[in-house]
Amino acid sequence: MRLLRTPPKLMDERLGHLDGSVQARYDHIDPAMRRDLMEGLTKIWEAALEMRRAMCPTSPVRALDVLLRGRR
Questions:
Q1: 7, 41, 45, 63: least surrounded by Cβ within 10 Å?
Q2: Which structural domain range is residue 55 located in?
Q3: Given phi > 0 = left and psi -120 to 50 = alpha, else beta, which region is 8?
Q4: pLDDT at position 24
Q5: What is the pLDDT confidence band of residue 71, given thresholds at 50, 70 and 90?
Q6: Distance set, CA 51 to CA 15, 37, 42, 54, 72 (Å)
């Protein structure tokens, strides 16, 4: 998430951390922040699947195999 420059408040929320600092108390997360994070994480996930598929297009792990086969 740091790679995507995710605001600390949103990182804490996503990771289930509680920050009792004054900054965290008065910082707010807006829908655009959530959207940007989801788009960034999705791009990273898609790239990781492509790299994995390039190594081997199948997997003995059923869930991963389904994802890899869906990318052909």
A1: 63
A2: 8-69
A3: alpha
A4: 72
A5: confident
A6: 26, 21, 14, 5, 13
